[in-house]
Amino acid sequence: MTSILLLALFAQPQPVVAESEFGEPVTVNEVLITDAAIKRHIIYGPCRPALEWRRIDALLQYEIGRRKEAGESVEGLNPNDEDFQRTYDKKIAEFKERFPTLELEAEIRRAYRNLDWYRRELRMDIVFDNTYIPDNQELWPAITFEALRAEAGDILIDDFKQSYERRSNFYATELASWEEAKATYPDRVKAYEAELAEWERKRDAGEEIAEQPSRPEEPGDEPEFPQEDAMYRSILRQMVRDMLFKTAETKTSIDGLPDEIVMTLDINGDGEVDHTWRTDELWDDVKDTVSEKEISDAKHFLAKMESARQRMAGEEFLLTHEEARTIFESNEGGAGFQSAQFNIGMVAVGNHQFPSVESYGDYFRVLESHRKRVTPLIESPEEGGIAQPLREHLVRANQIMGLGKVDCEVLLVSAFDFPSNKWVENGWETSKEQAAWIKEEIEKNNQNYAEYRRLRMEAAAAGEELDPNSIPQAMDPHDFWSLLLDEYCGYWDPPQPEKGRPGSAVGYKMKGRFGERYRNDLQGMIGESPFHQFVRGFSITDYVFFEQQIGTVAGPFKGPHGYYLTKVMRRMPPTRPLNIGDDRHVGLLRDDYVPFSLIGYCEEAFQSADVKGI
């Protein structure tokens, strides 16, 4: 009896007495979401580069230290400050030359969060290349060969060797064999010739006006013949890093680390932890780059996870961590947990756009628990056909998997300054007010235009001319909407480079004029993701794709970057609908139903819980 009483006591939520760096502490039915959990979620997600920099740097320093102990030379692996600055200045100059209209600091923040992070990552890339992928293949360590062979046999190795030999010969003859160079490096020669011609033009112009006190254009240093594609080098670098990660043992929250520890690293797999990075240590490094929106998103996700787990535990179908982990590994063919973590990360962070593999790990336990609950409800009935939940879900699934389309336009009144890559001060309030005003103007114009048409029809029926003073001020509704898109839509497309090969325009927002889109494509265009839909429990994409009436303007809806107004032009039916007589199609239908139905289940749990601090 005493044991039962103790279990009952500890099963009850205890009053929370806590303070938080982030305002009111976040609690779900009096269960505290710790500051460490919030910090770690952000570190694993948007601030991941700070964590990965430490992991890669630790592996690098270990290798350099090993070579020293073995008596090998490590000279030149780490560039001196002067050489590094020269590389840094060159990259900055190249970027400014290609994108003169972009804000440099904004683009560095977009890619690296701040300038210091970019500088340290650039230095680390140089050290990494010097250590593992130097130009001379004779200096490659064994793991580099192993990594490239694992990806493509000897193809990449032979290609790199031939490229190095051709490059060496090319420079050794001081560009003597220009015809051979054109055949070997057509793209690089073309770019070099264009750059050289521009330099010569500036040089010649400068000589002609040398007597003048100021010169409008400085030619600078004579351009050098370009090296191999930086993207190619980056791909090789990542291959080697992935191999290094496989030889080491990394642990994160997925492996059961407490909130206070963000990662541990056993470099040589001997069972001894070589590095432990604590959450507060990383937070001190990243906190100045973190936005209020990122903190809010972290709180919301963690609170939703907690409310879902509590509901599932109460309904007695929540999987244990061990059960979820077993399923996690089995889904990847028993390849081992670290391999499974890497592979499933391609889906979690790529397709579903979760902030991190770790956040997907939290979600995965809830997803598989929900699958356990609903599986009996969606099995095929004995009398044939498909279960009722699947029958109800079929219309939605057909539109997505059957490749239906919608032609829509979206007006984002943005709380985010995309060109400057920062949130606007009081942007959410301003966005909400402006979106509401735009919607009012649309409705007012619609009413005026309807009145104008009524008066015109009445005048025509009576054979009379309309009195200009009696005509309400109005525009054709579509023309008015188009005018508003041009004036107020906050979607932004980056400019094409002014030098070098053009970038892809796929995914350009075109001021919200998206055209015909599949559902999943539309989700990305709007700026949502499966993760965003799960956390917020609502999808602008789905409302537009499935519910909104054609020809109407709906909203404002609160979304990832502000408030949104939407207009549907037309819908196209699915061209390849599911066949419920095909077991494979029924399997796809079940697989789609489980995560979709989980969204509503978790939102109900969240709304019914006593959630504070959000």
Structure description:
- This protein has helices at 2-11, 35-44, 48-69, 81-98, 104-112, 115-132, 142-152, 155-172, 178-184, 186-208, 230-247, 279-286, 292-314, 321-330, 337-351, 357-378, 388-401, 427-461, 477-488, 519-526, 530-536, 540-547, 583-608, and strands spanning 26-28, 31-33, 249-251, 261-266, 275-278, 405-414, 416-417, 422-423, 513-518, 553-559, 562-572, 611-612.
- By secondary structure, it is of the alpha+beta class.
- Among the domains are: 294-388 and 579-614, no CATH class; 405-499 and 508-572, Chitinase A, domain 3 (Roll).
- The strands form 4 sheets. Strands 9-6-11-10 form a 4-stranded antiparallel sheet, with helices on both faces. It has a 3-stranded antiparallel sheet with strand order 2-1-12.
- Helix 16 (357-378) packs across helix 23 (583-608) and helix 18 runs antiparallel to helix 19 (477-488).
- The protein is globular and about 100 Å long.
- The protein starts with a helix and ends with a strand.
What topology does this entry show?
Elements: H1 2-11, E1 26-28, E2 31-33, H2 35-44, H3 48-69, H4 81-98, H5 104-112, H6 115-132, H7 142-152, H8 155-172, H9 178-184, H10 186-208, H11 230-247, E3 249-251, E4 261-266, E5 275-278, H12 279-286, H13 292-314, H14 321-330, H15 337-351, H16 357-378, H17 388-401, E6 405-414, E7 416-417, E8 422-423, H18 427-461, H19 477-488, E9 513-518, H20 519-526, H21 530-536, H22 540-547, E10 553-559, E11 562-572, H23 583-608, E12 611-612
Antiparallel strand pairs: 1-2, 1-12, 3-4, 4-5, 6-9, 6-11, 7-8, 10-11
Helix pairs in contact: 2-12, 2-13, 3-6, 7-11, 9-10, 13-16, 13-23, 14-16, 16-23, 17-23, 18-19, 20-22, 21-23
